[in-house]
Design brief:
Blueprint lengths: L1 H18 L11 E7 L9 E7 L4 E8 L9 E6 L2 H13 L18 E8 L2 E5 L7 H16 L3 H17 L1
Antiparallel strand pairs: 1-2, 1-5, 2-3, 3-4, 5-6
């Protein structure tokens, strides 16, 4: 009898673990890493950036002009992110069911920009496929989340990176 109970408990735990339902409360270890790149363009017009939002009250934008190589420049700027912004972002991502491992993928779009989005919460990591790999219904959901993440970086920083990128292009 006790083996039956233990077996049922183990099966129940496995089923619950596979559901991977996170609490709606913002995780203490909640963090976001969002990356975007232009895709294949001539080197002077190529760039990539990563927005890192994590524990605490600081975010970081890392911007890289040109292609990645051993001599690549990375322009890095920190910016404030308050607890309410992180809470609101977590709630949005939670309500949009972004904390999951299964995504509907469509036909690969070639030649466009590339993206990456990594969410961490409650000791788990969720890697969201590039927009170019997602089915249209998933694309819209992920693209909207990425836009919200972009808006957490102050506009003055985006303006500075745009100006530096233009200077990079001229001096290439």
């Amino acid at each position: 009898m006790s083996r039956v109970i233990i077996s049922m408990m183990i099966i129940s735990l496995l089923v619950l673990a596979s559901c991977n339902q996170l609490p709606s409360e913002t995780a203490q270890d909640f963090s976001v890493t969002f990356g975007w790149n232009t895709g294949t363009l001539p080197p002077q017009y190529t760039y990539a950036y990563t927005v890192i939002l994590g524990q605490g009250t600081r975010g970081k934008l890392e911007y890289q002009p040109g292609y990645w190589d051993d001599n690549a420049q990375i322009w890095s700027v920190e910016f404030p992110v308050d607890g309410q912004q992180m809470h609101d972002l977590y709630q949005y991502l939670y309500n949009q069911k972004m904390f999951r491992r299964e995504w509907k993928e469509g036909e690969l779009m070639e030649g466009g920009s590339g993206t990456s989005l990594i969410l961490k919460a409650y000791g788990e990591q969720y890697d969201i496929p590039s927009l170019s790999n997602l089915e249209s219904s998933e694309y819209a959901r992920v693209d909207a989340a990425m836009e919200i993440i972009r808006t957490l970086v102050p506009q003055t920083i985006w303006d500075e990176m745009d100006a530096r990128q233009k200077e990079w292009e001229v001096n290439y």
